[in-house]
Amino acid sequence: MIRSVFISFLLLLAMRGIECNAQTASSKQNKPDKRGIITGADQTDKYLQYLKGKRIALVANQSSLIGNKSSVDSLLSLGVNIVKVFGPEHGFRGNASNGAVVNNEVDAKTGIPIISLYGKNEKPKKEQLADVDLMVFDIQDVGCRYYTNINTLEYVMEACAENNKELLILDRPNPNAYVVDGPVMTDDRFKSAIGIHYIPMTHGMTIGEFAQYLNGEGYLNEKCRLKIIKVANYDHDKPYTLPINPSPNLNTQQAVMLFPSLCMFEGTAINEGRGTLMPFTILGAPALKGQYAFSYKPVSIPGMSERPNHKDSVCYGLDLRTYDINKLRASRQINLAWLIELYNAYPDKARFFSPGRANQDISAFDLRIGTDTLRKQIIAGMSEADIRKSWEPGLQKFKAIRAKYLLYP
Question: What are the residue boundaries of the Peptidoglycan beta-N-acetylmuramidase NamZ C-terminal domain, all occurrences included (predicted)?
Fold first, then answer.
């Protein structure tokens, strides 16, 4: 009798345990997903088998990570046959200065051939793709027209389309996806190595979304076959802190977030922190002495900036290292006020905007902005509100086009 009661008691406990577990599972399903952002690369279960048995070429740099390990190293350890790596500006390991020549080489760690896609060989050649079954693109972008990763993306897509190769994109969040702002480039005269797309200065798309935009808007002679591994638990307004520097001069999250606003100064007499360990968080020039208390001296830093503007001269200006980035997020705009302020403070206004290179009638500033209108508006003393109003027709048109290609809310 006692034994029978004891067994019944155990069965009752087991049944209640099953019921409790079922309620817990149901409860978990009904709760909103509170997991963090998961990049496309980190979701190996969604693409690893697709890579197996194929000869893979990876477009990658130091931002290409699976967990905290290089995507190249990780995929090799998982048995993926990587036959070559294509590296964009700054090289595969990300240690080349902006604009520096990056040569083809063999990766010392893996022995894999590294082919540069920056400089004369911007686009993979037919012979470079002959032994490739599938291209994989895994690079962190920061959402600006003048950040050259989207140029590399277009050239890779074009080469894949021409050579009947599929492109797999391991998508990553855009840390500046919350902002679509700035003048839209509409004139071919302003196309250059730092801008080849008819988009605003900040486009608000991930690499995967931008690839769909390129396919859909006729940038390519023929469409590229795409497969995109989406970012999980992500939307365009969700803050994202990069796990690694996307390039040598974006060496802090503050710099990444200020980059859309401060990179405008590269076509001016103002140093934007290149030549220091604080790039894209400070602004200054020797001519502003007496107007600003903050000062610093740009120097040559191998691997970052060998020839910074105002090298070895003390610069005076703005210290934005502790600027509240939430203000930019709240405004959903590029900060134009700093550009107007420093132009008005600069004593020799005729020298504020850098001239173009030899035999080029377009200034370096205009190439970066994608139009000469903003420069002319600032010189004419137009207010920030009126300048922004002039951007609106182009921005509204672009946003309507952009909406067709979004993968995330």
Answer: 257-408
Mention every residue, 6+ apart, whose C-beta is less than 8 A from residue 359. Answer: none
Reported residue count of the chain is 409
Which of 89 and 331 is assigned the larger pLDDT?
331
Pairwise CA distance, residues 204 & 126, whole Å: 32
Report the alpha-carbon distance of residue 199 to residue 144 in Å, rounded. 9
Please report, to the nearest 10 degrees, the dihedral formed by the alpha carbons of residues 3, 4, 5, 11 taken in order. Answer: 110
pLDDT digits (tens, 9 = 90+) for 156-187: 999 999 999 999 999 999 999 999 999 999 99
Tokens of 115: 């082919």
Q: Tokens in use for 167?
A: 């492109």
| Adjacency order of strands within the sheet including 81-87 | 105-106, 113-116, 81-87, 55-60, 134-138, 166-170, 226-229
Residue 100, pLDDT > 50, answer no
Task: Give pLDDT, residue 99.
Answer: 45
> CATH 3.40.50.12170 in the chain, residues?
44-242
CATH topology classification for 44-242: Rossmann fold (3.40.50)
Q: Provide the sign of the torsion angle of the four alpha carbons 99, 104, 106, 112, taken in this order.
A: positive
